[in-house]
Write a structure and sequence with these properties.
The protein is α+β, with helices and mostly antiparallel strands and 121 residues long. The strands form 3 sheets. A 4-stranded antiparallel β-sheet has the order 2-1-8-5, covered by helices on one side. The protein has a two-stranded antiparallel ribbon with strand order 3-4. A two-stranded antiparallel ribbon has the order 6-7. The chain has 3 helices and 8 strands. The protein has one domain.
Length: 121
């Protein structure tokens, strides 16, 4: 909870964001079978500006994914669709975990009028 508090609120970092959905697909290293797939719908009113995902391998120690900087950069650029990939750096009994997280995010923003609109009439 301390990391979430330190991160601040997502809407403070992306005030024009109206919707954010992240499709997450996690697979074993080098594999496309036996993965975990789900959609994370972000509740903007409460969301911290932190995007960490736990590794789904039960034997993984000290693993997981932190895609915060990539997602915040895409939101700051007002990108409507973006994706990324990261490998788990955790350890399993036989060595590196190596599971791979791939995400595809879809964002919607409030339309912002130009600050200097041409004079009317």
């Amino acid at each position: 909870m301390a990391r979430e508090d330190a991160a601040g609120k997502l809407l403070e970092r992306a005030p024009d964001l109206t919707d954010l959905q992240i499709e997450i697909d996690e697979t074993p290293r080098g594999g496309s079978v036996g993965g975990t797939r789900y959609i994370r719908r972000v509740v903007l009113a409460q969301a911290p500006a932190l995007f960490e995902v736990s590794c789904s391998e039960p034997r993984c120690r000290d693993g997981g994914y932190d895609v915060t900087s990539e997602i915040l950069a895409a939101l700051a650029s007002r990108r409507t669709m973006f994706e990324g990939q990261q490998s788990c750096a955790g350890r399993c009994s036989l060595g590196d975990c190596g599971r791979v997280l791939h995400y595809v995010a879809t964002a919607t923003y409030r339309h912002v009028e130009n600050a200097k609109a041409p004079p009317m009439g």
